[in-house]
Amino acid sequence: MNKYAILTAVFFGLGLTACSEPASRQAEATRQPGRYPIVTGEGEHKKVVGEYIVPPDSDIDKQPNAEQIRLGQRLMNDTKRLLPEHVGSHMNCSSCHIAQGKVPGGNPYINTYNRYPRVMPRPGKEIDLAGRINGCFQRSMNGKPLAKDSEAMQAMLAYIKWVGQDVPKGQRVDIVNAVPIDTKLVPNPERGKQLYAQHCATCHGSNGEGKRDGTGSYAFPPLWGDESFNIGAGMARTYKAAAFIKAAMPMGAQMHGMWGEGGVLSDQDAVDIAEYFTHQPRPDFAGKVNDWPKGDKPKDARY
Hints:
By secondary structure, this protein is an alpha+beta fold. The chain is 34% helix and 9% strand. It is built from twelve helices and seven strands. The chain has helices at residues 3-11, 23-31, 66-77, 79-82, 98-101, 112-115, 129-138, 151-164, 189-199, 201-204, 238-248, 267-278, and strands spanning 35-40, 47-53, 118-120, 125-127, 172-173, 211-212, 218-220. The strands form three sheets. It has a three-stranded antiparallel sheet, with no helix packed on it. Strands 3-4 form a two-stranded antiparallel ribbon. It is globular, with a radius of gyration of 18 Å. The protein starts with a helix and ends in a 25-residue tail after the last helix.
């Protein structure tokens, strides 16, 4: 039994999300899989060429590399516990990729494998998927990158590929990765503070400190402070965070849709809350000096 399996034997099923996602809720989501068209082209040239069905976890055991995919899944859910030397914050991949990367609008992995390598504006160059994952480790996790040939990295890549269900290159599942937010909205952080107290503090603490469970581990991750994501993370940007809030927060506040699908807050609500918590103190990121080298920095960047 490897070190990841030993650690997970105690904690599996306790994977953290932005508001902790019980295993029963994950099971509920996978019992009623979503169905989405597979398409090619854009706009008037978009054509449906197939159907994607969100895969249940039981499908993993049918794969020839099932053990590797399962390890990747555990690492996504229990990143802090299983890779403590690479994670400085108290975040997991599933903190920002809802329902193990299977929910539209909640930063799903469904199209991720096919999207890389690609040129990204923040680094101003082409990066592969391993590089993108390491960007999360350095920013959202406020930690250190994994070796690209490491067991952990290869397992995470295998899990993301499995979620994508081998949709061919040049095709994509017609889902929303992040919901649109009107970036012309003017944020009101004072109103955001009030809305945060009303909708967010129960899970994330009145001072953004997060909430620990009976074992001392974070059940709900901190949104600011030394143990949260750093200033270089996408979630530290007002409109990026607002899109996530609008799509996925607060969890469990409505009775329709999959676990992790929001729809309670308006665009203005989400923007105000995001403006409030993203501008609270958090760790710095030394690599920020290299971001947006071509001068196309978005207006909500914190630096």
